[in-house]
UniProtKB/TrEMBL annotation:
<dbReference type="Pfam" id="PF00155">
    <property type="entry name" value="Aminotran_1_2"/>
</dbReference>
<keyword id="KW-0032">Aminotransferase</keyword>
<dbReference type="GO" id="GO:0030170">
    <property type="term" value="F:pyridoxal phosphate binding"/>
</dbReference>
<feature type="domain" description="Aminotransferase class I/classII large">
    <location>
        <begin position="20"/>
        <end position="290"/>
    </location>
</feature>
<keyword id="KW-0808">Transferase</keyword>
<dbReference type="GO" id="GO:0008483">
    <property type="term" value="F:transaminase activity"/>
</dbReference>
<dbReference type="InterPro" id="IPR051446">
    <property type="entry name" value="HTH_trans_reg/aminotransferase"/>
</dbReference>
<dbReference type="InterPro" id="IPR004839">
    <property type="entry name" value="Aminotransferase_I/II_large"/>
</dbReference>
<protein>
    <submittedName>
        <fullName>PLP-dependent aminotransferase family protein</fullName>
    </submittedName>
</protein>
<dbReference type="InterPro" id="IPR015421">
    <property type="entry name" value="PyrdxlP-dep_Trfase_major"/>
</dbReference>
<dbReference type="InterPro" id="IPR015424">
    <property type="entry name" value="PyrdxlP-dep_Trfase"/>
</dbReference>
Amino acid sequence: GPAWRRAWRMAASAVPAARPDPRGRPGLRAALAEHMRRSRGVSCTPDAVVVTRGIGNGLDLLAATVLRPGDRVGVEDPGWARARTALLARGMTPVPCPVDEHGLVVDALPADLRMVYTTPSHQYPLGGVLPVPRRQALLAWARRAGALVVEDDYDGEFRYDVAPLPALFDLDPETVVHLGTTSKILSSDVGVGWLVARPELAAAVARRRVDLADRTAAVSQEAVRLLLERGDLVRHVRRMRAEYARRRAVVTEELAGLPLVGDTAGLHLVVSLPPGRAERVAAEAARHGVLLDDLERHHAGPVRFSGLVIGYGAVAGRAELRAACALVRRLVADELLADDPAADAERAAGEPAVA
Ligand SMILES: Cc1ncc(COP(=O)(O)O)c(C=O)c1O
């Protein structure tokens, strides 16, 4: 919209700094600290903030700063494959850590991890919101183990009928590094995210970043600062949240009766299916132009959850979403009936094969 164009036009006329601050532009760091306070209840000062290009970049910089090759890092499983890839690329040993419908299973964490990567506000991809007692147990575990907790808050803005839970960082800023991004609220093309850590650690990440010749483009930083300072970003998120809540209602309505998991936050939810079924449904849906994701492929260890990941952030509109959900419902019903002898008999007798 106009606010977006105005921000980029104004940002383009900013004078580049002769010696850019590796922590990011001071105005943006101040705006982000304020944004974190208002939107996520996180209290932090600008010297706790490093502007990154996104969560992937933040995780990479953190690993390059605090870890050594071979260090064992816990990664949720199923989980975000790119976290694993980033750690592997730095020579770390990612250790798959089980999750359930509420998020990371803290009791199952091994004691020898140096760091654990987690998505507490909306587990990716299962969709659980980590309950407060588990948050506290996780932090107690980390303090005992001397490990850092990395909080990936990729879609923490999108909560609908659940109360916002305190960010891990706010519960223990010594132990937690919080990573945020504009990828879900604007676009991953913007290339701006943030890392929030205790100030000495933030400064160490910024120093390491200079060695790695890694930086965030000044124009993008300026545009995000303007969108934040003028309240445009908050208004945009508010509109999106309302729209995504309506989309989520369409999905839960159209798929009512199917076993849905993770429907209280975020931009996707999961339809549980017996093992091995999602791939065929996704392939058939793709032939009709509907893209679905197979939950099994998000596992690094043995497959523990099966089903379809249904994203509703990127569809054009609610009518299209409704039609896509109707298709999913039909394909899932066909798939589940396919080798059910009773259903075959019913169909042979002329019964309609719908769920
Ligand atoms: C779990 C998770 N974390 C982070 C991101 C965003 O990462 P980035 O900020 O690097 O684009 C995504 C989205 O692609 C995601 O699904």
